[in-house]
Structure formats: structure tokens, C-alpha cells
Fold each of these.
Amino acid sequence: MESLVQQIAACKAEMEATTPDTPELAEQFRIRYLGTKGVVKSIMGEMKNVPADQKRAFGQVLNEFKIFAEARYEAILNSLTPAQNEDHGLGDFSLPGTPITPGSRHPISLVRNNIIGIFQRLGFAIAEGAELEDDWHNFTALNMPGDHPARDMQDTFYIAQNPDWLLRTHTSSVQVREMEKGKLPIRIICPGRVYRNETISARAHCFFHQVEGLYIAENVSFADLKQTLYFFVQEMFGKTVKVRFRPSYFPFTEPSAEMDISCLICGGSGCNVCKQTGWVEILGCGMVHPAVLDKCGIDSNKYTGFAFGMGIERIAMLRYQVKDLRLFSENDLRFLRQFTGAL
Ligand code: DAH
């Protein structure tokens, strides 16, 4: 026991005096003292020769010795310069990392999320539908039978394989799918992409995005429609914005209206954007036509509802003062990088 304690003290002194300054020498140190056939292990192996009554005290000495050796090795590693401390060839962990450039959201996504957020606060849930629709959900159930002239308002891409299939021309088809589920009341907004066979210009594209809204319950009135949309506009464009409703026509609503807001660019005095009128149209709306409710299996004597639909591109153009619709789908990073997330 006595001699072992001496051995340990000598060994500690030796470790302290050794100052390996390369990774190779540090590794030699580790093998000599902490390796499986190293000094620490072999001294520990002496434990079996220590008399039983001294085992406890010696155990403590040994333990402390082992901790000392490990700490010394740790200190040696830390004293090597970062480049030397390579950690077995895995690379220099002290070098700065390769930065990942964060992207930014697409302006259409930003505006869509904003619209969704506002309606969610009013208790609307999100409903989504497929972009490939059938004639019933896109047209017929919405009170547009085969020969109805209103079908011409929306030039349609039909699918050659099956004349009953088409790329939805509006998100109103999602209304129909939700109504057919038969669970009432319904309070949903439906964001999504829609397609129209149009000549591409600064104001029209063959696809764009819409958000549809639908609220059906007992005693829903036009006053509820106005109040809901008024709240939306104020949240979206600020408290000073004015609204007006103009009578309009949609086959699936009666009465129908288009909602205008006071022009954000000129404040109402007249400019190119509002075509000198001071007003800009932002959405179509109305009370769901009783014939639509009936077609979708809802009792139109008991329930009433309102619906609305707006183009996201249109709102984004007003919000960001973008003059050409094509910019949203050209993927020009110089354009897209200007939208950082703040609306
Ligand atoms: N679906 C119409 C369109 O694409 C927009 C619309 C108007 C939707 C009135 C509605 C509505 O739900 O009530 O032009």
C-alpha cells in the first residue's frame, strides 16, 4: 500500500511534467496513462493485493488518481491550438460554419396567411379542395347549368380525357363540397389556386389564387355579411379605409354585391390604379342562393348564409403597390427578395 501511494505520487508528478504539444504526443500520453494497458489501469489492478481493511481508503486514492489523469489529459487537449485539435480528422470544429441563407415567403403566401389569420379570429375554419374538379362542383351545383351564360364569365380549361373534368375556375367549388357534407353550421374560408383560360397580361393570368368564404346557419343576414367584410377590410388595410357595396350578379348568390374599398394609392382623389374613380373592387359576395342550398341538401327554409370570394393577387397588388400580375409567378429573385415577411 505504502509503495503504491508512492508510485501514484511519482506518476502524478511525471504527468504534470509532461507537456505534449502535438496531437500525436497527446495521443501517446493518453495511451501511456489512460489506455487499456496504461499506468492507471495497472495501478488499479493492484487493488486485489490490498488488505481488506485498507481497501476502502485505497479505493478513494485510486479514484482520485484516475480523475487526476483524465483532467490532465483534458488540459493537454485544450492546450493544443484549434487546428491541431482536429478530433481524429473529422474537421476543425472551431471554424465558423457555412451559413444557410434564410429565404423569405412568397408575397402571395404572406397575403394569404394574413387573410386567413383575420378570418380565423372571427371563428372561420380552413377548408381546402382539389384543383381538379368536376362540372357539378364547379358549375352546376352553383346554379350554373350547362347552357348558362355565366359559364362564359370564366373561360375554362377542360381535361381532354374526360369532358366532365376541369381545372377549377374558382374556389366556390369548395363551398359545395362542404355543404354536401351536411354538417351545420358552416363557417369556413377556402384558400387555393384557380385556373382560367385567359390571355396573359399585366392584369390577367391563366392561374391565380382566391380565398372563398362561407357562413351558413340559422338567421344569417346581409347585415352579418357586411359587418364581417367590414371587419376584414379594416384589419387588412387599416381603420381609415372606406367600403362600398355595389349590386352585382352571381348565379349562386341572391342578392349579390361587389365590394369596393377606397383607393389606397390616392386616398380616394383619383389615380391610374382606381381609374380616376377613387374606388377599387376587391371581392364578390352575396347571400347564398336558396337553389344552391337545396342542391347541396341544405333546407333553405331553415338556413341562410352568405358567401364571398376574393383574388389574393389583387389584394397583394394593392397592398404592395405591384403593377404587373406576372411578377408574382416569374420567380425573379430580385422581386421576391423584397418581401421579408412584414406586411
Ligand atoms: N366565384 C366568384 C369568382 O370567381 C367570386 C365569388 C363571388 C365568390 C361571390 C362568392 C360569391 O362566394 O358569393 O369570380
Amino acid sequence: MNRLQIAIQKSGRLADKSLSLLERSGLQFARSKDKLFWFGRNLPVDLLLVRDDDIPRLLVENVCQLGIVGENVAEEKLLEVQQQRPEARLESLLRLDFGHCRLKLAVPEDSDIDSIHGLAGRRLATSYPQLVRRYLAENSVEAEVVMLNGAVEIAPSLGTADAIVDLVSTGTTLRANHLKAVAEVMSSQAALYRCPGRLDDAGEELMAKLLTRIQGVQQAAESKYVMLHAPRARLAEISAILPGAESPTVLALEGQDDRVAIHAVCTEQVFWEHLEELKAAGASAVLVLPVEKMLA
Ligand code: PRT
Ligand code: ZN
């Protein structure tokens, strides 16, 4: 069987979390410093470490079969490829809940532009020209789009643009450059993508296995195993407080007829507020444990 290649960002905002997710899914690689190729040691799955911008094209061209990249980059680069090859496709398998950001339209704080419609006939700077042109077209606005690879946020103060479309997470960069957001073009997070078309049976099987493991890692990261003692009479009430718990296990407590032990896997976050509610409902000896692996 051929080996699968997974592309992740070599260094940058998504690099560490992408690698950690794959390692927690049980993949081991022969790390080689500075090289962009890490051989898979325990499964026929190798790693390619590249610039995030290259990942969508590597997938479209089937150089890699799996890749982790921001949805913003995946969509931008796919639109770019589709200009030459309209049939090109990318399939998103799973959103990964990291690398969250928003692509926003921003203007100088003192600008009178307050929506995309105010940009008619004006000039816009961005690193995402395809997404911006699509957004303008969807809103029937004609504006000039200037492509900048970096430092987009300083374009308005240099007088090279009336507005920008750029990624925002905390908003600090916008504020530091006296810009204000007036619209959202898209919200984005890291996602797992696959190449278009079917692989051979062994390849598809391996890909399905990896996907199940990655889903398991994600689910486990959110889940907690909760153990507690509770009055038998308040079982239903207590079960209802446990976030995302389905059919908890109820166990007898030696020498106690009116109290039971409850064990449950909570698939949603367990907050202090939940524990306080449990206590108020008569629970005691409450333990919250991390879940390492899950296989549904
Ligand atoms: O070298 P390579 O090309 O691989 O990396 P890169 O420099 O193109 O990308 P990188 O590592 O900066 O970002 C990779 C991905 O992380 C992006 O494509 C997004 O999907 C995601 N992401 C999440 C972000 C941000 N948050 C983010 N805040 N990417 C960039 N930013 C920038 C933003 O544009 C702003 O200039 O960070 C700056 C700070 O943002 P604030 O709002 O917190 O001030
Ligand atoms: Zn990049």
C-alpha cells in the first residue's frame, strides 16, 4: 500500500497544535530538524512541514492526502486554483477548534465608511484578494482590491487604501493602528482537509482510521469523567445537571440504602458552577477526571 502524506504548517500559529493533535492520535514521526519531511514510524503516514499557503494546492494536486490549515487560507487558495481549474475541489473533514479568527473589513476610526456599501469606487488592501472579490460581488459593490502580503493594517495610514480586510483575533492590532471593524467577511478556524477523489481501499481505510482517532482525541479533550455520591431520591435531578452526560452508571454504596455512587462521562465542559449545583442537590465526594482517549 502507498503511504499517506499529511501536510501541516512548519512554523506559525497552527504548527504546534497541528503536530500535537497528530501525535495524540498515535502517530509517531522520525523528526528531522530543518527538513520538511518527517517519516512516519508506526503507521504508513508521513508528515510534510510547509507554509500554510501551500497546503491547499498540495491537497488539490494529491501530493498530500490530508492537511491541516485555516479555513481562510483553504478557501482563498481554492478560489485561486479554480481560476485555472474550475473543477478543483477540497473536502473539509473536520473543524479542529483552534486557530480561531475572523476576516474583517476595517476602516480608519475617523472614516465615514460604515459598511461594505460605503466602499464603492474606493480602494481596499488585503492578503485575501479572492475572498474579498467574492464578498464584494456578493454585495454588488465595485471597489479596487490591492494585494499586500503583510503589514496590511498600515495601508490606510500610508494612504494606499481606504479600508482593509484582514484577520482579527483579539482586535489589538486594529486598535493599535486606529482602525475599526465595520463588517465580517468570514469566521475561520483550523480544519482537517482531504484531497479530492477516492484513494485505493487501503488508503481510504487508513484515512478513516485516522479521522476516527482525531475525532476521539478532540472529543476526549472536551470530556470529563465525573464520579460522585448522591441521594438515591435525587438521581434524576443530579443526572440532569451533568453536562452532556448520557445514561450515567449508578452503583450501590456498601451499607447505605439511601445514597448511591454515580459515574458519568460528560461530553461538554464541566465548570465550577456545575459542581456547586451538584452539591446543592445533595451530591458529595465529587471527582472530575480527565479523559485521555475515546472510541465511540
Ligand atoms: O509562514 P506561513 O505562511 O506558514 O504562516 P503565516 O504567517 O501566513 O500564518 P500565521 O502563522 O500567522 O497564521 C496561520 C493561520 O492562523 C491563519 O491563516 C489563520 O487561520 C490563523 N489565525 C488565527 C491568525 C490569527 N488568529 C491572527 N490573529 N492569523 C493571523 N493573525 C494576525 C492578524 O492578521 C493580526 O495581524 O495576527 C495579528 C494579531 O491579531 P490581533 O487581532 O490579536 O491583534
Ligand atoms: Zn501563510
Amino acid sequence: MKSAYRTLRVACMLVSAIAPLAAAALGPVEATLTVTQEAAGPRIEPTIYGQFVEHLGSGVYGGLWVGPDSKIPNTRGWRNDVTAALRKLKVPVVRWPGGCFADDYDWRDGIGDPAKRPVRVNKNWGNVLENNSVGTHEFMDFSEMLGADVYLAGNMGSMPPRAMAQWLEYMTSDSQSTLAQERRRNGRDKPWKVKYFGIGNESWGCGGSMRPEYAANVHRQYATFLRAPVTRVASGDGEGNDEVTEVMMARAQGSMDALSLHYYTVPNGWDHKGAATGFDALGWAKMLQTAMGMEGRIARTSQIMDKHDPQKRVALFVDEWGTWHDAEPGTNGAFLYQQNTLRDAMVAALTFDIFHRHTERVKMANIAQMVNVLQAMVLTDGDKMLLTPTYHLFDMYQPFQGATPLKTTLQTPNYRQGDIVLPAVDVSVARGVDGATYIALVNLDPQHPARVQTNLSQPAKGRILSATAMDAHNSFDHPATVLPTPYTAALVGGRLTLDLPPKSIVVVAVPSQAIQK
Ligand code: AHR
């Protein structure tokens, strides 16, 4: 999609051809960034920094929830260490309880006296027992502790529409209805605010194996009974199948406020995902190339949505995204527990840069998942906790929450690995809510430094995330191997110039008056 909004990225073929040689002999490859003061699109909704929590492996039990009687310090059952770390990220919204789990979930299992809640088998994720000690009241308490909005995924696959509607009434009704009274008896007087409600999940797969036409009809049926004011999210594509987007928009757009998209970074297919650590230079490049495929997926999905909804009333929610590697050796494969390296942080940076270029349609995104599952912010082991490189990337990108993307032009050489050709540098520039201009720069090349000369005339300060090894990561023994460090960029010839070491991510703030036309 060519849009006036988008950052122009001009690959300089000449520079590209001589880049490896030049880098070895002459120092960094060179890129040029021109920043304007003109908005490139609507603001970056803070909700694109959303997260996802599913009853899967130790994503809830152990990772977030230890129960009020645990020796691990907790507040009403929620781990204090993990909650405090997440609070620092200003998580805007959390999606729960799944994923695939949601379409097997009966909300009634998770209310009332915890000791009397039914025990079910979690059939999607390893057939482990689910005792439902985390249910609606507990999750709502957690989201209030985080200060996050909730995005609940309702069961469209295996429960009737009446059950979905009753869950919403139970949570949000201020009336004297039997359901509202039941909520009060269970300890919550005031109704909760439920801002976002997902009508099913992956309706084409674990959410009911529905064909697009059927899914559109079923969506309309369920949406009819969700009468409380709530943003209704329809289950969209997750397999690169445009027909799902096409049919959902053609047949059901009147019954939705947002359509979901799932995009996982899995370079070699589901059967050959590869390890989270110990990869080679090709494994690095393929991962980044696949992550950048998000751009095309969003562009294509937006194009179809534009055809049916030129006013852009229906938002696109990328409510599952992130890297999906082989599970860590020695762990239960169904728990999707994986390490998280500098490469994962690069994927997150490139993905946010893409979201920033599509703010006209992408209004929410939820990384999969928050703790101990897939591309997690936090990993835990008993009472120990570590923050992943992805956590630090989310932290560095915080100023982009609510910022306005600015039109920029980036001229960058290419980075090549085997047959893979990618821009060496990626960028995102936005005017923050505090008025400063924030620049995020990614040097994708793991071997060559890059120098980015800008048209700005003031030095800038910020933070850098980098490491010596491509698979550098934090472990429980060495939790500070990958950490952001302070970064300063000076003027060279009167122009702000940023030196990017190989495989690095930099975010700096520039006072707004420094921007030249
Ligand atoms: O995030 C893990 C799983 O991936 C989710 O449960 C499902 O929606 C997707 O296939």
C-alpha cells in the first residue's frame, strides 16, 4: 500500500552494493533521515502496546498468579514482583482468557467460592487440570492493579450466544438483575468497565473450524445479543487467508467495531520453527524478514477493509503477534515456554515501527503473551523472575504511546544475508504527548555499524539496546545480560547524527524546536 502517511524508505542500491566492503574497510554504512513536522497519520493508540494473557502453561498459574496463601509475595494472589514490573510498562490493555482457551471456556466456572469451582481439563494446552482459581473477579482485580483496560475473549465456539451475553451482563450491569446481584454476592458491588469484547477467537481454527461465510453469520448472531456498550471485535484472519477478511467485512461489518488479525513470526513453518537461542546469521536474518512481513499482511488486510469500509469505521486489532520458537528443551512442549533474545526485541521494534506506519487502521495490538508463554515480557522460575529483552524494548518504546507519527524520509543501504535483502536501518519518528520528538532507529545488520545523519540540529539523548551475541538473553543466573543503557547522539557538521552499533535499537528524544523544515 502506498500512502502519503508512510515513511519513505529509499534503498540506495549503489551503497548497498559496496556496503559490506565499505563497512569493513571504512567504518559504518551511512543512512540519511529527514524528519518533518507534518503528521503522517492519526495518533499511535496506546492500545497497540497491549498484551495477552491466556490460561496456557505458566502464563497465569505460577507466572502471574500464585494464590493468596503462597510464600511468594503477592497481593490477593497476584505476584508482587511481576505485577510491579508490568506496571512500569503502563500496559494499556490486557486480552484474556485466550486464545484457544477462550472458545473452550465457560465463564461460570470462574466465579463464586474458589474452593467450589469446577476442575476442567485444559484440552488446548497439554490436558492439564484447570481449577479455575483465576476467574472473572480475579482477572478484573489484576487489570485494576495494572491500570489496564480489559479485552475479554468470549466463547463463540462452544457456548450459546445467551452465555456470552450473560457474562457481559454479569460484569457490567448496574441493575438489580439476578446476574448483577450474583456479582454483588460474589464480592463486587460496582459494575466493571469492559471496554473491548472479542466475539470468539480464530473461528477458522480452534474457535470452531468455521468456514468464512458461516463464521460471519455466527458472528452476527452472537453480536446481536451483546447489548451493553462495548467494542465488539470479530475474529479475523490468522493464516494469511484474505478470504476471511473479505467475507467478514462483506457480510458482518455492521455487527463489529473491530476485526482481529493474528500474525506470528515463524520463519520456517510450524514444523521447523527453530530454537530461540543458538541460531546463526541466516536464522537472524530470516526472523527479521518474517517479522517485516507484518507490513504486507496489514497493508493487504487494510486494502480489503478499505474496499468495504472506506470511512475506516472498523478498526484492525492485531490481537496476537510475536515470535513463536520451539519450546525450551526440557519443558512441556504444550506450554510454549521459550527464551527471549536480542533478536526477539528486534522483532518487537520492527513490528511497532510497522504499527506506527498504519495508525489509520491499526488501533490495538496484543503481544503473545505477557509471562512465560511465547514472546514474553517476563519469565519466572519459582520465586525468581527475569525481564526479557522484549520487556526492555516495550519500556524504551513507551513514549510512542499516544504520540503522533511524523512524515519522514529514510535513505538506507541494504543489509544482505544469503538471498535475504533487508533495509539496514528501520525508523519510527513521532511527536510525543510531551511535545518532544521521539526517534526510534533499528540497525538490523548484526555485523556492520550504521551512521544515520538527520536534518535535526540538536543533540539527543535516550537509550540503546544491544549486545555482543545475536542470541544474547537474560537468564535467572545472569538477568542483566541485555539491558538498555544510556545513549547520546551529538551533532556532526551541525546535524544530529546517530551512530548505531551492529544489531542495536536506539530511542532518543529531541526537543521539538530542533526540527528544521
Ligand atoms: O497464543 C497461543 C495461541 O495461538 C492462541 O491460543 C491461539 O489463538 C493462537 O493460535
Amino acid sequence: MLLEGKAMVVTGGNSGIGEQICIAAAAEGANIVIDYVAHPEATNALIEKIEQAGGKAVGVEADITKAADLQKMIQTAVDTYGRLDVLVNNAGIEDRKSLLEETEEGYEKVMAVNMKSAFFGTQFAAKQFIAQNTPGLILNISSVHEDWPMPGNIAYCVAKGGMRMLARTAGVELGDKGIRVVNIAPGAVDTPINTSTTSNPEQLKKLDAAIPLGRLAKPSEIADVVVFLASGKASYMTSTTVTIDGGITQGSVGL
Ligand code: BGC
């Protein structure tokens, strides 16, 4: 198994890409920490799926926009599994507004969930790896929009652009300690974040047509790459981004 006994914290593990990451990692032997907000039962179904897949899991009440709660998730990995091997900064939200429409509240929420959580999660994970004196890996679920404008979704693009530089800079700062930071940039994935498009046949047709592979990704197609990156098979990768987008960013209108 590729991730036998590895302790992994996955923020936002309860839905979409995060859920599939937990299940795919568990199937390769990982032990997982996930977060829930207020209702422990929200994680019960997922913990069951993770256990069925062959891994272990524990849920922590945490608001991942609060640094102290991120620290609590990492401490839970240490208390439960004796260590931390991989942090997946996966939690993400959108607020589909243009620059002219965006509010202070919407901006702050998008930045807190997507960017601040990844920043402090990375800091705490790195401190834990240093304390353990082990190499470690931080994976950020970024987006093609870390480097590709999505008009009408500007706060999200700004946050993902920040994540791009988080991986670049933290990877350089931590390289001599054997700690690696890698971003994964999915394109359009069939998850709740895209429901407004997938539930509208006209819009879905337009989106599929813009993707060279002709369809959205399944969340498992992102999770499989996460498993590969978290395995010992990607040990020379850091400060970079792996794009998984069905070709969308290279698409052309074919005039
Ligand atoms: C966004 C989606 C968008 C996709 C491709 C993702 O990061 O969350 O809303 O469809 O990128 O543009």
C-alpha cells in the first residue's frame, strides 16, 4: 500500500474533492484527521467509509479559519497516530462576484477559508515536522485559477493566486528541512462547488465544450493524484503546481 500508516490531516474532508481524498488515501492505508463544524455526526458517515476503505479516521470540531483550530487538528494527529506525515489544505469556497460586486464580508470569508487556513496550516504542519525531525509534505488543493483569471469569481482567484505563492515560497524556505510543499490545480470538477453550472444543462454544455477531454473531472481523479503525491513516489517535487484540468487552460475556440 502506498500510504501505509501515514498520518494525514485533510481540511474540508467532508465533501467534494476532500471526501474522495480521504477515501482514496484510506484505501492505501492512511490514518486521517478531518474537521467538522459543530456537529460530530457530520463526520460519522465519512469515518465509516474511511474505515471500510481500510484506514482509520477521527473527526475534530474545528473552524479552519481560526489558527488555533488548525493547530488542534494537527495536535489530534499527533495524539491519535503519534505523528503527522501529510497535511492537505483542501477546504475551499467561492463567492461568485466580480470586483465591482464583491463585499468586505464576502472577500474576508473567501480569503479566510481558502488562503488563511492554508497559510497557518502550512506553518503548524512545518513546525510539527521540524519537532518530529522527519520530512513532511504539505499539499494545497489550489485551482487552475491560481494562475488563470475567472471573471466574476475574483476573490477566489486572488486567494488561489496567494496559494500559488504560498507553495513557491514556503517550499523554498522549508526545503533544507526536507519539507515539501506542492499545489494541485484542478480544473472543473463535479463537486458541490460547481452545482450552479452542473444543474444548468445549457451552462454545462458550454463548460464541457471548453474542456478538451469534453467533461468535468470526477473527484476521484483528483484524489488519485493526491495519493501519488503523498506516496514516496514523488519525493523530488516541491514549490510547484500539478495541474489536473482535462486541458481546459490550453483549450482554444478552434477558429
Ligand atoms: C472553480 C470552478 C471552475 C473551475 C474551472 C475551479 O477552481 O472552483 O468554479 O469551474 O475551477 O474553471
